[in-house]
Write a structure and sequence with these properties.
mainly beta
């Protein structure tokens, strides 16, 4: 027999042996057996009832946990055992060995199973509970959905799967990673810590604290304060009542219909705020800031921020940026603007408040409200000033620095002061 034929025969034998044992091939990840050929799933259940308790704690992994509060006097517990085996007889033997465990303590019940006693875990364990509404629920799970509703309190830790919590009359705390989290209709305080998990918070009456990263965050109808720290998370907030402190990076942040103070600390984050009644403070770098329909004092500071704002009604407005432009339209309030290496367009609704602009290497364009008069001074070092109002200015000086004064009357100090270096100032009449 030739060498090639011998090698081919050996390969055929090895292939046959491999197929023979392939149905038993398995590997283990996090104590869970994955079978290339797992057999068929068979479902068995074990149920019991417990007397009510202040607290119910469930420990599980690789399976669902669902708890619902109801007008009941006892606690109903069902353990669902989903077993993969070649046949039902083999599956039943495994299911019979897999037991529902309960331990009573002065504080309540601890509910679990004996799954950790199995060396090979070709099964899932899922819990379904119905409890009195005044029960506090604590769950630790992984690799399976957790859903809790209509109880007094919920504390959930669930890695690698979804968490849904609804209609809780007290506080909620969630730790999660790698799947979605939804909290809706919560009366108490909420505390959420997530990684790589989309988050929805809706109709929350208590204060909220969130620490999240790497997935989208949706906030809707929050009725109390919120403190949110995020990294690489897109944030969208609508209808927030109460003070809000938000920090984020590298993803857009958008807020609308906010009543209360709003503080945003961004890092390379586009920021949009629309329809705010309260004080606004923003710190950011390298991304645009857009503001619309604000009622309250405004502070925006940062580097390389393109700032666009319309319809602001405030006592004080403070803006500081560089290397990008500022466009501020239909605003009223005492304005302080510091700008370097960018252009500004200012169109105030009224001149009833002082306006001071300090520019460096910046062109300033000012649209004068029709029918308004205000003591005015413009200075441009190394640049020029263009006056386009029908009424002439009072005084003009040029000696390296161009200065124009208008509407001064008996005033010695202007209420409207525009200053720049190595840039143009243009004063235009509003049509």
């Amino acid at each position: 027999m030739k060498a090639k034929e011998v090698i081919l025969l050996i390969l055929i034998i090895l292939l046959g042996v491999g197929f023979h044992y392939l149905k038993d091939f398995r590997t283990s990840v996090d104590s869970w057996d994955f079978h290339l050929f797992r057999g068929h799933p068979f479902v068995f259940e074990e149920s019991l009832q417990l007397k009510p308790a202040v607290t119910v704690e469930i420990l599980n992994t690789h399976g669902r946990v669902e708890v619902e509060g109801a007008e009941v006097e006892k606690i109903s517990v069902t353990l669902e055992k989903k077993v993969w085996a070649r046949n039902e007889e083999e599956a039943k033997k495994i299911a019979d060995r897999l037991k529902l465990l309960t331990t009573e303590s002065p504080n309540g019940w601890l509910i679990s199973s004996n799954r950790e006693t199995f060396r090979k875990k070709s099964f899932e364990t899922s819990f379904r509970l119905t409890v009195p509404r005044e029960t506090a629920v604590k769950i630790k799970n992984s690799f399976g959905l957790v859903r809790v509703s209509k109880v007094k309190e919920a504390r959930v830790e669930n890695k690698h799967d979804q968490v849904d919590i609804f209609e809780i009359s007290g506080p909620v705390k969630v730790i999660n990673a790698f799947d979605e989290v939804s909290l809706m209709d919560i009366s108490g305080a909420c505390e959420v810590e997530t990684r790589h998990a989309a988050l929805l918070l809706s109709r929350i009456s208590g204060p909220v604290r969130v620490d999240c990263a790497h997935e989208e965050v949706e906030l809707f109808d929050l009725r109390n304060s919120i403190s949110l720290e995020s990294r690489h998370s897109k944030i969208n907030g609508v209808k927030i009542t109460g003070s809000a402190e938000i920090s984020g990076s590298y993803e857009p942040m958008s807020f609308s219909e906010v009543t209360g103070s709003l503080t945003i600390k961004g890092h390379h984050s586009p920021i949009t705020v629309d329809n705010l009644k309260g004080e606004l403070r923003i710190e950011n770098i390298y991304e645009p800031v857009k503001l619309f329909d604000l009622q309250g004092n405004v502070t925006v500071e940062g580097k390389s921020l393109d700032i666009k704002a319309r319809r602001i009604r405030a006592e004080k407005i403070y803006l500081r940026t560089s290397y990008e432009d500022v466009r501020l339209e239909d605003f009223s309030g005492e304005l302080h603007l510091e700008l370097a290496h960018g252009d500004a367009f200012l169109a105030p609704a009224t001149l009833s408040y002082p306006i001071e602009v300090k520019g460096r290497y910046a062109d300033l364009n000012f649209l004068w409200p029709s029918g308004e008069i205000c003591p005015f001074q413009a200075q441009s070092k190394g640049g020029e000033i263009k006056w386009e109002l029908p009424r002439p200015y009072d005084e003009k000086k040029t000696n390296g620095t161009t200065i124009i004064r208008a509407f001064m009357g008996s005033k010695s100090t202007p209420r409207l002061n525009l200053y720049t270096t190595y840039g143009k100032i243009k004063v235009m009449a509003k049509d």
